Amino acid sequence: MALYAIGDLHLSGNVDKPMDIFGDQWKQHHERIKTSWQQTVQKNDTVLIPGDISWAMNLEDAMIDLQWVDDLPGKKVLCRGNHDYWWSSIKKLNSLFEKMDFVQNNFFVHEHYAVCGARGWNCPNVHRFTEHDQKIYEREAQRLRLSLDQARGAGHEDFIVMLHYPPTNDKLMPSLFTEICEEYKVNQVVYGHLHGEDSHGAGLRGNHNGVNYHLVSCDYLQFKLIQIL
């Protein structure tokens, strides 16, 4: 049972939000993702999707996009992105689909790993970081810790973390998120949010202090899923 990841699907089945306004590389991006997915993922595999799934503003409008994801092969585990305004109560979301799980203050299991996560937030930086940012940053770090504590309390010792926002600032400085991942000896971290060549370079990648970090924004992956395990 392989584990794959791809983030920032930015689907727009029920809203007028074509992604090619951000460049030709986004033309028919959902079909390119679908092709890669169908060629790669088997029914017993799992795909992590760290946020920005649908442009819809409410759950009713997002259902066409969520169904599109659910119809693809494999099990899916999703966390919230900054554009997922449709995100409803976690209990309601987790009652909708048999092959799709939503992470928020909880965890799901892939083989012997616990998949944990949170949306995350901008990390402290010199460009713009307000008192309001600080509150959300600390809250999201606490949500990540709560997710990991839930898994540890259930007896798990091996962890994979999903974040939507990068776990560091653009200078790749340590943050509450990296500190928590190191504290819990997290094996893999996947995150998205960064788009375009200028932004992709601001993402932490590779092994840092024993934790493996993966930027999985779909445009960074050229709209192809990446295998994590």
Automatic annotation (TrEMBL):
<dbReference type="InterPro" id="IPR051158">
    <property type="entry name" value="Metallophosphoesterase_sf"/>
</dbReference>
<dbReference type="InterPro" id="IPR014578">
    <property type="entry name" value="Pesterase_CT488"/>
</dbReference>
<dbReference type="InterPro" id="IPR029052">
    <property type="entry name" value="Metallo-depent_PP-like"/>
</dbReference>
<dbReference type="Pfam" id="PF00149">
    <property type="entry name" value="Metallophos"/>
</dbReference>
<dbReference type="InterPro" id="IPR004843">
    <property type="entry name" value="Calcineurin-like_PHP"/>
</dbReference>
<dbReference type="GO" id="GO:0016787">
    <property type="term" value="F:hydrolase activity"/>
</dbReference>
<protein>
    <submittedName>
        <fullName>Metallophosphoesterase</fullName>
    </submittedName>
</protein>
<feature type="domain" description="Calcineurin-like phosphoesterase">
    <location>
        <begin position="3"/>
        <end position="196"/>
    </location>
</feature>
